[in-house]
């Protein structure tokens, strides 16, 4: 019963925050300059009536609260609205493109975490300064390379662009993991374990990881959100038809219907990932205690 | 004797090749679209990608030959304009069918025109036909003919039908049933479209073989121009329709035969000052921008030759005025580009009371001359042009602030709030006829960028332009129209409401695997003769 | 590794001094266009060649370093302090404070802040000086970049809240701000330094990317971000190697930051 009650509370919290996120996202879009204008207004072929009609078509989105409550009402009936920039139902667009982004994010996180965490663990357990230097140099180079240059290098090497996200999250994962594991490895009980002759793997898994686990799990939650955010420029650069590319087009076109939905999706994913990491972190602490 | 025989054989081969007798059938043509088409309804196509789909799939009554710029028969075998330019009568070809087999008749043309001219549709193609208020009448005549009557004369009426893709009034597939060379086979949203050969396409080559030669066309959605260029050099795509100057040089360095420079395009880059009386600018700045001397001085202080050479790598030329020299008939050849002459610029400014003080230009009230120019962020050519203008104007003591804005913010400023000082943008021109620029030159129009939607013309020269543009639109006499429009160009050259900077060249790149491509200036530059393009036998056989 | 740290400090000092003395060292103004020599190769007159508009690249690197090296670390420091403040208080307080603050943080991470940046740019006068515009951009990046690190710091602070030394400190009479500042924050340093080190290049690149929306540095003022944007062309990767110098300098400076901070990050 406690578990069910906790899950219900969590679910309610997530729903409230997601709805709030949608509203705040809509507010930001509505207040941004360029809202309600259409590039087509500059088409010299259009006469005054057509330009006026274009402007009136956007007028329905002008009143934020009526737009948002109308949107929520339609949402209850499964209608996510229509994208003004792509002239298609938002539900259809999201259904087509979300799997692409999930693939990219999944692959990227898998690559980033495997490389970042394993390298950090190797650095900490081996205590080899050259390995630390190498890892830090690699992380530094990847942090400094613009995403557009990385994308171009991938294309030149004919490597799958989806892996690019892994290279983007790797430096953060490596850096935080290295610091957290280093701090953890300096704790007295770890020194004792080493003095007792325990092997590196055993020390890592049983003595170094557990104290750093809550923070590493928090990092995992954060990297999910970072990966989704990083997906936007990467999908736009590499022409991957995911929701990141959709978000970029929607931002440039001030497509409020699309942006509200995408903001809510990202908020939902962020909340679920971070809540899961919080729960797992608490479990670890309780287990350790 | 042997040499003569060899020469004869070569000429014959060239002739046969251009007539398609040696053209290899089959294969899949690959090229890229820079964005996803916003609509597949040909009547609403307004963006590049949608217009590409319309061109490839739409059957039109007449077609403007992009090479010769003449109007040629399409679905209509002949046509006649009468009634002072208000009526056009088409003789339609017999026995045509849409891609799904639905028979074509004059009723389909009538249906298409009714849809197009529906005031609720607000189609850019439809608006081009709206010379005045009133209904458009269509009359289906015997022997597969149709008469269309407009409420007022329309100059260049026949050419406008190049943009009207005929839709079926009966087909259950609606706008997906087409009369053009290809129909849409697959549309993977955000990724690519595949078009397949229309089995009922009416056109045949001189040897009687059905066109198009190429079986299918795949259009990948590719926004990144670096990747597009790379794909061309790797042979993954067959051409790039519109190429930027730096990529052109890159491709030309690798393989000169692939890079094509068709000369100046119809497009121009220009700058204008905000002359809207109600704009939130300080009165002294409004005074500056309203002065012809000021605008002429700015124009003379800008080095257009350097701009063409440095920003466009020599693939542009200083613009003269409203019309590009590529528009051979309508271009006023008496006009020359404003020369780069900063002394003359300072002289003009001194006539308006400007003076230099410690290297900074001041007006007669003592205000230092400083203003901003907005342009769309992300367009590196415009950003570079603005930076060059910044340096040029510093030579006459003017401080120019370059402000790049994202496009919606920029549009809001130039069409709604008028909260800007100067703007640098480009004019994309697909039409040769000056009627296409009516909404730019008429002072009451929305696209009269420097001071739109005027109730009455703010200046005498704008009133004169209004009169001349209306006069040229009301007559079919080409000579009179040319005279009137030449005068419009002269006034624009004199008053410089737009400071025309450069006309970019029409650059494209074509793979050696693609045959019979003759890149031209008019859009679409490379695939204008899509039904006559062919692929090499290896490529055609492999795909 | 002491010698590497010394070398790193010396290099950073050298770069700082060089960019502060740019007015004296630079062979030309960063804005001056040598129009007869666009895209020129390195020469005696132009040590790193010229850019697309014929501007001396060496001068632009010097002046650009001044902008980025000053502002990006300041923005990174701001975001790190905000992360420490928010995450530290949430994790330490626990209970509903922790839950509310973390929910707000998650919301913060998800919102399209791009539009706030665009709105701020729209509110600025068009004739604002480039340096003010870039100051505001970096300040905004600093104010918006704290959320991810706050989560990790919160998790860290939660763990420390129950630790023995904190209990001892409380028993000794420490509470409130003193407890946070004297006992908690020093133990959060590894995460804070990691956050700072990551933020510096991220903010520099973000400033460059914001140029696509009209934010960031205005012409002709250079920054590392605008210099790195030159690399975003196909032609760069295959041709002019000297265009990579700003990138190499950027990597070296970031690496030096790492070497300098390493001693502070690790408790041993």
In short:
The complex is a heterotrimer of chains A (289), B (543) and C (268). Helices cover 80% and strands 0% of the residues of chain A. With 289 residues, chain A is mostly helical.
Description:
The complex is a heterotrimer of chains A (about 290), B (about 550) and C (about 270). With about 290 residues, chain A is mainly alpha-helical. Chain A has helices at about 1-30, 50-60, 65-75, 90-125, 130-145, 145-155, 165-185, 190-195, 200-240, 245-255, 255-289. In chain A, helix 4 packs antiparallel against helix 9 (about 200-240) and helix 9 crosses helix 10. Chain B is globular, with a radius of gyration of 25 Å. Chain B is of the alpha+beta class and about 550 residues long. Mean pLDDT of chain B is about 90; it is low at about 15-20. Chain B starts with a helix and ends with a helix. Chain B has helices spanning about 1-20, 50-55, 105-115, 125, 155-160, 225-235, 245-255, 285-290, 290-300, 305-310, 340-350, 380-395, 405-415, 440, 460-475, 480-495, 535-540; strands spanning about 30-35, 60-65, 70-75, 75-80, 85-90, 135-140, 145-150, 180-190, 190-195, 215-220, 240, 260-265, 270-275, 315-320, 355, 360, 370-375, 400-405, 420-425, 500-510, 515, 535. Chain C has about 270 residues and is mainly α. Chain C is about 70% helix and about 0% strand. Chain C contains 12 helices and no strands. In chain C, helix 1 crosses helix 3, helix 1 crosses helix 12 and helix 4 (about 95-110) packs antiparallel against helix 7 (about 145-160). The relative contact order of chain C is 0.15. The chains are: A mainly alpha (about 290), B alpha+beta (about 550), C mainly alpha (about 270). Chains in contact: A-B, A-C, B-C. At the A-C interface, helix 1, helix 5, helix 6, helix 7 and helix 9 of A face helix 4, helix 5, helix 7, helix 9 and helix 12 of C.
């Amino acid at each position: 019963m406690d578990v069910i009650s906790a899950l219900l509370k969590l679910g309610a919290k997530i729903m409230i925050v997601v709805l709030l996120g949608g509203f705040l996202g809509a507010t930001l879009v509505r207040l941004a300059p360029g809202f309600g204008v259409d590039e087509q207004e500059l088409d010299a072929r259009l006469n005054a009536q057509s330009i006026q009609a274009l402007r009136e078509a956007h007028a329905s989105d002008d009143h934020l609260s009526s737009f948002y409550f109308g949107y929520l009402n339609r949402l209850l009936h499964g209608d996510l609205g229509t994208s003004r920039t792509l002239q298609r139902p938002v539900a259809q667009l999201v259904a087509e493109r979300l799997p692409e982004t999930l693939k990219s994010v999944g692959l990227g996180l898998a690559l980033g975490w495997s490389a970042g965490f394993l390298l950090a663990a190797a650095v900490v357990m081996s205590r080899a300064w050259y390995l630390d230097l190498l890892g830090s140099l690699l992380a530094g180079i990847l942090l400094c390379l613009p995403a557009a240059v990385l994308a171009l290098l991938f294309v030149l090497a004919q490597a799958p662009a989806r892996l690019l996200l892994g290279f983007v999250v790797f430096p953060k994962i490596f850096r935080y993991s290295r610091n957290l594991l280093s701090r953890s490895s300096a704790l007295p009980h770890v020194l004792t374990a080493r003095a007792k002759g325990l092997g590196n793997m055993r020390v890592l898994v049983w003595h170094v990881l557990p104290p750093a686990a809550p923070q590493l799990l928090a990092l995992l939650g954060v990297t999910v959100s970072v990966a989704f955010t990083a997906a936007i420029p990467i999908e736009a650069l590499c022409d991957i038809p995911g929701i990141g590319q959709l978000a970029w087009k929607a931002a440039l076109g001030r497509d409020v219907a699309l942006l509200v939905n995408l903001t809510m999706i990202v908020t939902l994913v962020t909340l679920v990932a971070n809540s899961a990491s919080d729960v797992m972190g608490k479990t670890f602490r309780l287990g350790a205690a | 004797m042997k040499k003569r025989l060899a020469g004869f054989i070569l000429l014959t081969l060239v002739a046969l090749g251009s007539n398609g007798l040696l053209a290899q059938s089959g294969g899949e043509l690959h090229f890229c679209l820079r964005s996803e088409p916003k609509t597949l309804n040909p009547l609403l196509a307004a963006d590049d990608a949608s217009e590409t789909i319309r061109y490839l799939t739409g059957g039109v009554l007449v077609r403007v030959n992009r090479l010769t710029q003449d109007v040629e028969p399409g679905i209509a075998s002949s046509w006649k304009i009468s009634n002072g330019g208000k009526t056009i009568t088409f003789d339609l070809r017999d026995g045509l069918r849409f891609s799904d087999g639905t028979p074509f008749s004059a009723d389909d043309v009538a249906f298409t025109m009714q849809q197009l001219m529906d005031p609720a549709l607000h189609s850019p193609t439809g608006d081009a036909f709206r010379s005045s208020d009133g209904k458009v009448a269509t009359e289906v005549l015997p022997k597969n003919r149709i008469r269309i009557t407009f409420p007022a004369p329309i100059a260049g009426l026949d050419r406008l039908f190049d943009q009207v893709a005929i839709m079926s009034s009966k087909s259950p597939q609606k706008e997906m049933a087409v009369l053009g060379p290809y129909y849409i086979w697959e549309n993977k949203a955000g990724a690519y479209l595949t078009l397949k050969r229309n089995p009922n396409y009416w056109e045949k080559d001189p040897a009687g073989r059905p066109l198009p030669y190429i079986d299918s066309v795949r259009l990948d959605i590719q926004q990144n121009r670096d990747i597009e260029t790379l794909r061309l050099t790797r042979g993954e795509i067959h051409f790039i329709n519109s190429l930027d100057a730096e990529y052109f040089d890159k491709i030309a360095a690798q393989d000169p035969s692939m890079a094509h420079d068709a000369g100046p395009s119809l497009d121009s880059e220009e700058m204008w000052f905000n002359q809207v009386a109600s704009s939130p600018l300080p009165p002294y700045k409004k005074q500056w921008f309203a002065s012809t001397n000021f605008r002429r001085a700015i124009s003379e202080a800008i080095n257009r030759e350097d701009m063409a050479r440095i920003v466009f790598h020599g693939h542009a030329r200083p613009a003269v005025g409203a019309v590009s020299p590529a528009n051979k008939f309508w271009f006023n050849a008496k006009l020359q580009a404003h020369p780069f002459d900063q002394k003359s610029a300072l002289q003009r400014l001194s006539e308006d009371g400007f003076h230099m003080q410690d290297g900074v230009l001041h007006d007669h009230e003592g205000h230092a001359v400083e203003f901003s120019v907005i342009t769309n962020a992300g367009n590196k050519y415009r950003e570079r042009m603005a930076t060059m203008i910044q340096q040029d104007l510093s030579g006459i003591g003017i401080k120019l602030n370059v402000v790049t804005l994202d496009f919606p913010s920029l549009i809001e400023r130039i069409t709604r709030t008028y909260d800007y000082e100067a703007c640098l943008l480009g004019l994309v021109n697909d039409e040769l006829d000056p009627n296409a620029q009516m909404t730019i030159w008429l002072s009451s129009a929305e696209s009269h960028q420097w001071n739109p939607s005027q109730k009455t013309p703010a200046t005498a020269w704008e009133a004169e332009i209004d009169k001349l543009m209306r006069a040229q639109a009301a007559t079919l006499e080409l000579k009179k129209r040319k005279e009137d429009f030449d005068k419009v160009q002269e006034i624009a050259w004199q008053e410089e409401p737009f400071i025309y900077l450069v006309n970019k060249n029409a650059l494209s790149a074509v793979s050696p695997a693609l045959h019979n491509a003759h890149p031209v200036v008019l859009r679409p530059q490379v695939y204008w003769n899509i039904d006559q393009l062919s692929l090499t036998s290896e490529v055609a056989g492999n795909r | 590794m002491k010698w590497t740290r010394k070398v790193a400090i010396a290099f950073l000092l050298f770069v700082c001094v060089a960019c502060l003395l740019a007015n004296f060292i630079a062979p030309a103004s960063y804005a001056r266009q040598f129009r007869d020599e666009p895209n020129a190769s390195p020469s005696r007159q132009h040590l790193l060649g010229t850019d697309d508009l014929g501007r001396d690249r060496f001068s632009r690197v010097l002046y650009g370093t001044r902008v980025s090296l000053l502002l990006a670390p300041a923005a990174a420091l701001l975001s790190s302090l905000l992360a420490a403040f928010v995450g530290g208080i949430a994790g330490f307080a626990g209970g509903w404070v922790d839950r509310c603050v973390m929910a707000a943080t998650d919301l913060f991470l998800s919102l399209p802040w791009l539009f706030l940046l665009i709105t701020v740019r729209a509110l600025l006068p068009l004739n604002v000086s480039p340096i003010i515009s870039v100051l505001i951009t970096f300040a905004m990046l600093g104010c918006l970049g704290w959320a991810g690190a706050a989560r990790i710091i919160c998790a860290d602070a939660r763990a420390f809240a129950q630790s023995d030394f904190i209990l001892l400190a409380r028993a000794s009479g420490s509470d409130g701000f003193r407890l946070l500042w004297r006992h908690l924050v020093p133990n959060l340093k590894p995460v804070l330094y990691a956050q700072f080190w990551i933020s510096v290049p991220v903010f520099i690149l973000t400033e460059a990317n914001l140029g696509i929306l009209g934010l960031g540095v205005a012409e002709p003022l250079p920054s590392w971000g605008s210099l790195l944007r030159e690399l975003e062309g196909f032609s760069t990767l295959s041709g002019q190697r000297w265009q990579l110098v700003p990138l190499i300098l950027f990597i070296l400076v970031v690496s030096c930051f790492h070497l300098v901070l390493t001693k502070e990050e690790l408790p041993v």
